[in-house]
Amino acid sequence: MRKGFIAGATAVILMLSGTAVQAASTMVQIVPNSWRLENYQGNRVVVWTNGSTGNCARLDLHSSWSEDDRNRFWSTIMTGKAGQKMVFVFFDDVTCEIISFGFPEE
Fold first, then answer.
1. Is residue 45 situated within a structural domain?
2. Which of 25, 51, 52, 81 is the most exposed place for a label (fewest CB within 10 A)?
3. Which CATH number do you get for residue 41?
4. pTM of the full structure
């Protein structure tokens, strides 16, 4: 009986610990005039948002993104800047990593 209790209690603890810290995604929709894009060594792209994204003043592209993904992101932000167009970015508000991006419907 004691082994069953310990196994059950352990299962409950593991289940609760797995759901205790869940990241939430946040969306920002903005004309990115005040955003600064930086490319770092190793093809790392960072966006400095000047506080327009709440707690995440810096947004990162996940390291698993391909070069084509990074190029599309760079192009999207630069098109938004040059054309005064709104862009949207979904990001993880814990890690500040970008999840998705694009242009909203007009």
1. yes
2. 51
3. 2.40.50
4. 0.73
